[in-house]
Design goal:
Blueprint: H1 3-8, H2 11-20, E1 43-47, E2 53-57, E3 63-64, H3 66-74, H4 78-85, H5 97-100, H6 109-113, E4 119-120, E5 123-124, H7 125-135, H8 138-148, H9 152-157, E6 161-163, E7 168-174, E8 180-187, E9 192-194, E10 215-217, H10 221-229, E11 233-234, H11 244-254, E12 260-263, H12 276-292, E13 297-299, H13 308-313, H14 322-338, E14 345-346, E15 352-353, E16 372-374, E17 378-379, H15 394-404, E18 410-411, E19 413-414, E20 420-424, H16 428-438, E21 444-448, H17 457-460
Parallel strand pairs: 10-11, 10-12, 12-13, 20-21
Antiparallel strand pairs: 1-2, 2-3, 4-5, 6-7, 7-8, 8-9, 14-15, 16-17, 18-19
Helix pairs in contact: 3-4, 11-12
Length: 461
């Protein structure tokens, strides 16, 4: 065994290096990271299956063996550190304090994000991500930030980089332990992709622990950056139903005791009626609830806007106005928390059950004004069930409300102006009679979907 290899397998050598960096190592499994302002221990040392002792920070993901650590602390190239180590004998040899007085942390935030990697398909994706981050210049970053209406600081926080050969933006994706396992791409024309050979993971921003609850779990890196711009804690999922394994690990290790909401997307398909963004959010929330043994709720972006970023962008704020941005973030979080749902609970016989009801006093108040379509009966963004005996006039009543939405009318209460889509099993002839009688205009569209036969009890379940 070489001398350098024996040092890598010596725990005391690694601890001594950390001590020289000013770290208290009395509890090796819970120490403060020297590479960021770490007030609560977020790092530790562990021995890998190869017998090598390594340092790892679960917050900024800095880490490596004793020589990686020394290179980062002193700012020396790793090759120089290894060369010097060839003549080192016995126990760990400390570097002179004079050399350490000029120590520097990572030159970019991306270096901290990508400091620990895992070779997948022969590629160290941490190295790939790091090179892309270092290749990103301020002008190019500002251009992307302007296009997406998010801050450059938020893009830096998620490790946004630039791939020189493919000429596209890059975003590192990590597993639940924070290790970079792949790199997502975004071309100048908006197309998205993924560098071949990597694995899909999570977009975990720097400073996640410093942001208030709840932690949102939207889809994609751009939604995470939009959340960060508006003061919201967020972790990006790789797809509508992906990333569950990594999320389960992340929540268990880093989000213990924190509120988490899976956020879907309003991407319903008119052609076949599918809704992957909603179905995926429910699936992820349900599976996380099952695995973790704690409730993980899901919600949809308010006002039927497609996703979190588009909702925040619709506020049309000056992103340099931090107060206004954080206020918009609080408003979004308040609405998501208020309109979030518990995933179905699976009972012993395999059927889904709903949780127990709650009293009126426990409903809470999100502090936002309710927008009514027909005041005070139909609220925008909410579901309202109108029930009565057959032929009591339910459809006739709604036909008058719909007609009033053409130019804003009044029926017991004010009716807001707007467009309407009516999905009905009734015939065109019946609705043509109502249209003629009431004068319903083209602010109303119809979708006739006939039910050939009634569902059986089993189908409804």
């Amino acid at each position: 065994m070489s001398n350098s290899e024996s040092i890598r397998r010596d725990q005391s050598a690694l601890l001594a290096e950390l001590e020289q960096a000013g770290v208290n190592v009395s509890r090796p499994t819970a120490i403060c990271c020297p590479f960021h302002d770490d007030r609560n221990p977020s790092a530790g040392v562990f021995q890998g299956g190869d017998g090598v002792w390594r340092f790892k920070c679960h917050r900024c993901c800095a880490g490596g063996d004793v020589f990686d650590l020394r290179a980062r602390i002193t700012g020396q190239p790793l090759a120089d550190v290894l060369k010097a180590a060839k003549g080192q004998t016995g126990k760990h040899k400390h570097l002179p304090n004079a050399e350490r007085s000029g120590r520097k942390t990572f030159p970019t935030l991306g270096s901290a994000i990508a400091s620990v990697g895992r070779k997948i398909g022969g590629t160290d994706w941490a190295v790939v991500a790091c090179r892309c981050i270092d290749a990103m210049d301020d002008d190019r970053l500002a251009e992307l930030a302007g296009q997406m209406r998010i801050s450059s600081a938020a893009l830096r926080a998620i490790g946004c980089g630039w791939h020189k050969r493919q000429r596209c933006y890059t975003f590192p994706e990590r597993d639940g332990d924070g290790i970079v396992i792949g790199v997502a791409t975004r071309w100048l024309d908006g197309r998205k992709g993924f560098l071949p050979g990597g694995q899909r993971g999570l977009t975990v921003p720097d400073g996640l622990d410093d942001r208030p609850d709840p932690v949102l779990l939207p889809e994609g890196a751009s939604d995470v950056a939009a959340c960060l711009t508006h003061g919201i804690a967020a972790v990006g999922r790789p797809s509508n139903s992906g990333g569950v394994d990594h999320l389960a690990t992340l929540i268990q290790e880093r989000l213990v005791g924190r509120d988490v909401i899976v956020v879907g997307e309003n991407d319903a398909k008119a052609k076949d009626g599918s809704w992957p963004g909603r179905v995926g959010a429910i699936k992820v929330a349900t599976e996380l609830t099952r695995r973790l043994g704690r409730e993980i709720k899901w919600a949809m972006p308010p006002d039927k806007v497609k996703d979190v970023r588009k909702w925040l962008n619709s506020c049309k704020l000056d992103l340099s106005d931090e107060t206004a941005c954080k206020a918009a973030g609080r408003k979004l979080v308040g609405q998501l928390a208020s309109d979030s749902f518990r995933p179905p609970i699976e009972s012993r016989d395999g059927r889904n059950e709903y949780p127990d009801p709650i009293p009126a006093s426990a409903l809470g108040d999100c502090g936002e004004k309710i927008d009514f379509v027909w005041e005070p009966y139909l609220a925008s963004g909410h579901k309202t069930l109108l029930s009565a005996h057959p032929k009591d006039g339910k459809t006739t009543l709604l036909a008058h409300v719909v007609n009033g939405m053409g130019d804003g009318g009044h029926l017991v209460g004010p009716i807001a102006k707007g467009r309407v889509l009516i999905v009905t099993e009734e015939s065109k002839m019946l609705w043509n009679e109502r249209r003629t009688k009431l004068g319903i205009g083209d602010h109303v569209d119809f979708y006739f979907r006939f039910q050939v036969a009634c569902n059986t009890h089993a189908q409804w379940e």
